[in-house]
Amino acid sequence: MSVVEQLARMPAAAIEFANILLTQDDAEVGVTPKDVVWTHRKTTLYRYRSTRRRHPVPVLLVFALINRPDIFDLRPGSSFVEFLLDEGFDVFLIDWGYPEEEDADLGLDEYVCDELPCGIREVLRASDEDQLTLLGWCIGGTLCLLYGGWAQDNPVRNMVLLTTPVDTSGSLYSTWVGRDSFDVEYVAAGYKAIPGQAVDWANKLMKPVTNYWTTYRRLWEGVLAGEPRREAFQAMARWVADNPPFPAAAYRDWITWMYKENRLVHGRVRLRRRRVDLRRIDQSLLVVTAGADHIAPPDGTRPLLDLVGSTDVKSIDRPGGHIGLMAGSKARSEIWADIARWLQERSQTTREGRSDGNHRTE
Amino acid sequence: MADERRSSPTDDVRRLYEEAESRTARAFEDLVSRGSFGELLARMTENVVALTKIATDVFDLALRNLRLAGRQDVTRLARQLARTEDKLELILQEVERLGDELNAEGRSGGARSGRRNSANGTAGATSSRTSRAAK
After folding, report:
1. Which of A92, A200, A272, B123 is the most exposed place for a label (fewest CB within 10 A)?
2. Do residue A105 and residue B135 have CB atoms under 8 angstroms apart?
3. Are B29 and A130 in contact (CB < 8 Å)?
4. ipTM (interface pTM)
């Protein structure tokens, strides 16, 4: 397109650009039909409707305590949930909801020792199965790890961890909130529920130019070229802007345990007086890392491979960012298919029937 | 061939711009990764928390003196509801456990119910909740 053509198109492009930004809140996310199975306080367990269930072992999706789990089901045609359903899985999702000040007492132990086990119990009841697959993303992955290392004889058959922080030493977050001058107790006492926007602002501040400028510049270029990718941009923008508050107790636990004291990797997390021992995790384990992940860098996740007791371990490292890896335009071909293949092989047999051979692959 | 490879002024401008943008991005990422920036962020966070706390206290005081329900009152009520819900959840667990036991008795193999109740890793599935419900 010549300069003259670009100039001529600019007024129309400016209007379209503004329209995309102004109507992004109207984008529909998380629209795959689902039913409520169980609720407790702000937590809701959903089961996605499907007539194509082939694999007996159900999959429970666990997302982080920041942002919404809608990223699993971003928009039709670009939905991991939709993909899993098409592949014949029975998919459940645990949604932590929007905690408010009254939930200030919800610490990580409540999430790991109460909410998650109850969700698992209801998944097993609803699916009439004995075992399930836990699929955690970001903090959700760490919650799954804590559960696996805490709950003895649990019914988890497989564990899939996506861009999960484990060893936070040397991370940018650790530079910010791990220092002594960051008084997490004061923050948690001041805010009963840490505003989601503050957490989002901190996340964006890690790559300020990319998040506050490049994203919009690329959109503008797309609009000017007549290829705005409106649906994809709006769905992602809406998801990014939807930030539930972080319960104060859970925030204090998370910052202290993971960033100030890096307890998980040193085996010093205790929940309800029981030590979280990652060697207790003997399930089939798939660990997915993203090469350009600045929130949970691959170097901070890989130590997990030597800490767990599993013999069937697979690690996949792909180019992409913390969210882009699973929700980007290439996710379906580059990573979803691999996850589905790995799950299919491990979603047919019972726990007792699973292979004990050493499958550690990278 | 040489003519084909020659880039247009528009392409040159674009290339220079993208180069400048990626350099700026790297410079900012370097800036925010410094310890001094972390220190600044920590102090700023503390100030924002302190200001929010003062503002919240002032608003709550004003509302209380006007005999109107404030945020704290709503939160207190919501906590009461949450405690009640915790107790209801205990009852649900018991009902489900009894239902499973009855089903297991009906069928010959009762292994499944035992497995279901082991989701929290303890034999007494309800024990962990009791402490929270009692708060």
Report:
1. B123
2. yes
3. no
4. 0.82
